[in-house]
Amino acid sequence: MAQADLLLPQWASLASDRQKFILQQLTRYFLSPLLSVDALVPVSVDYFGQTLNTFDTLIGGQWLRFVPGAMQVPLGVDRDDAATKTLLAQLPEAELSPKRYVDIPPMLVARQAIPVNEQVIGQVNLLTQVFRGNHFAYVPYKPTVMTLLNRHAQSLDPNAQSWPPILESGHVRLIQQSPHHYQVRLVHDWDAQALTKALGGFGQTLPNEDQYEYLQGGGLAQVFPWGNQLVDELPPYLPNRFGLTVKTNDASPELLLVGPDKRGEGLLQWSPAYRSLHDAPFAQHTYRPVTLITVD
């Protein structure tokens, strides 16, 4: 495989069979052998008339999406552009990253963001109790997982077989992913350095500022994910060129007041270029681990 095959627009020109073969190779060579590859599913993402064909892969209990890289991607905000000036004049003053052009590598990106104090190690089947994922990390916590599952199974009403969205005990948190599977997460009391070190052990990392902006904004030169215009009401999900959507109703209610008297105050935080002047405590953040892909 050539590096160019993993970049836009070359990736889009490849046949689906060729794309699948490339993804099979990537999951074999760019991630830790401790992480089992349990599925590879084609995905088609539509974004305002543009279509991206890519793949999701279930690795270590976590769905990862392949995002092609790109050369000389426009990032940030061009404050000298007349239309952008008009838009920004209607918004509160804020720190926005400057216009620049950056080369972005292809990546495998977690489809779902999770709290920074959690680590996904795999998933367990409710029917068979078979675990798939990082068995080395799972062994010390297997008794806790089995106790949680068995205890709840015994308490279920036979006429209403339902499982709660979350089961937890101690350092183990189980998040329901389907009617038959729980994702197994470990809860840690760690800082950014410890999180980065843990991810590095599996060939993953946290995206840097350029990579984050590319993933959130799709590498498009616009202030908001939906374009360079204001909206009176946020959609429940922000549009995203790569299908890495963000639920806006996850935010606190006061940040969603975007009516006439609050116009703009609740919008800037959804700009990929937005930089908060007041860093929230580390424990309040979520993250998407990424695997950067380079081919000689």
Q: How does this model look, in words?
A:
The chain is α+β, with helices and mostly antiparallel strands and 296 residues long. It folds into 2 domains: 3-112 and 195-292, no CATH class; 118-187. It has helices at 10-13, 16-29, 82-89, 135-138, 142-155, 192-200, 209-217; strands spanning 37-47, 50-59, 62-67, 70-75, 95-96, 100-104, 107-110, 114-115, 118-125, 131-133, 166-169, 172-178, 181-187, 274-275, 286-287, 290-292. The longest helix has 14 residues, at 16-29. The chain starts with 9 loop residues before the first helix and ends with a strand.
Q: Order of strands in the sheet with the most strands?
A: 1-2-3-7-16
Q: Give the helix tally.
A: 7
Look at the helices and sheets and give the structural class: alpha+beta
Average pLDDT, all residues: 87
**Low-pLDDT stretches:** 252-264
Helix content: 10-25%
Tally of extended strands?
16
Shape: globular
N- to C-terminal distance = 9 Å
Which descriptors apply to this entry?
296 residues; five-stranded antiparallel beta sheet; 7 helices
Offer a concise description of the structure:
With 296 residues, this protein is an alpha+beta fold. The protein is 21% helix and 28% strand.
Would you spell out the secondary-structure blueprint of this structure?
Blueprint (H helix, E strand, L loop, with lengths): L9 H4 L2 H14 L7 E11 L2 E10 L2 E6 L2 E6 L6 H8 L5 E2 L3 E5 L2 E4 L3 E2 L2 E8 L5 E3 L1 H4 L3 H14 L10 E4 L2 E7 L2 E7 L4 H9 L8 H9 L56 E2 L10 E2 L2 E3 L4
Antiparallel strand pairs: 1-2, 2-3, 3-7, 4-6, 5-14, 7-16, 8-15, 9-10, 9-13, 11-12, 12-13
